[in-house]
Specification:
single chain; 202 residues; mainly beta; 2 helices; 9 strands; elongated
């Protein structure tokens, strides 16, 4: 996994270096919040509040741009199962929270002047799990094969943003394209809403 992360970072660095001489090159930092949920057919899901912090570059002209990013964030979900056992209601629950390194590569278009414009973007994002935290009771673990997640997943992002001077605001939706569970029994995909604030350093 470390080799894949290094190659992905090298790809972004090469892209930035290749286009850094163009007139419309921007580099900045960003941070924000997200609301995430892992879809599952074995339990009721609940949203989890997470964060993201990292950097972005924006390269292009004539209204079109490429925006590679790299940020550390958190995402996860809570699952609740309710079963009947000898006329007794049993509630089993589990929580999972991932700390990830996310690397989107977005293609976008912008309308308006440099210091005040509206943007639209979409593209793929690869996520590497840096840390995984799970809490559950034993009944839930046996029923769901919990704690059996992959170290890398793919997703797609689509969203819109506004630039006001050096400030940049983005709102995006992220949909999971690959199953994050290693189990053959379950298909779990992370879906997120992102809201972030960035600042253009140059």
């Amino acid at each position: 996994m470390k080799k894949t992360i290094l190659l992905s970072c090298l790809f972004i660095a090469t892209t930035v270096a290749a286009f850094a001489q163009l007139p419309s090159f921007t580099f900045g930092i960003k941070g924000g919040l997200n609301v995430s949920k892992l879809n599952a057919d074995f339990a009721r899901e609940e949203n989890r509040l997470g964060y993201q912090v990292g950097a972005f570059a924006r390269i292009g002209g004539l209204g079109l741009y490429v925006q590679p990013e790299a940020y550390v964030g958190s995402k996860g979900s809570k699952f609740i199962q309710v079963t009947q056992d000898n006329n007794t209601t049993v509630e089993a629950d589990g929580k999972v929270n991932f700390t990830t390194l996310d690397i989107p590569l977005l293609l976008g278009t912008k309308i308006g002047p440099k210091n005040f414009n509206v943007r639209f973007m979409s593209g793929p994002v690869v996520s590497f799990v840096l840390n995984e935290e799970t809490t559950f009771n034993q009944a839930y673990n046996q029923a769901t094969d919990f704690q059996n997640y992959k170290d890398q997943t793919w997703a797609g992002q689509v969203g819109a943003g506004v630039d006001v001077g050096n400030l940049t605001i983005d709102a995006r939706y992220e949909v999971g394209l690959s199953n994050i569970s290693r189990s053959d029994k379950y298909d779990q995909r992370a879906n997120l809403w992102h809201l972030s604030l960035g600042y253009k350093l140059f």
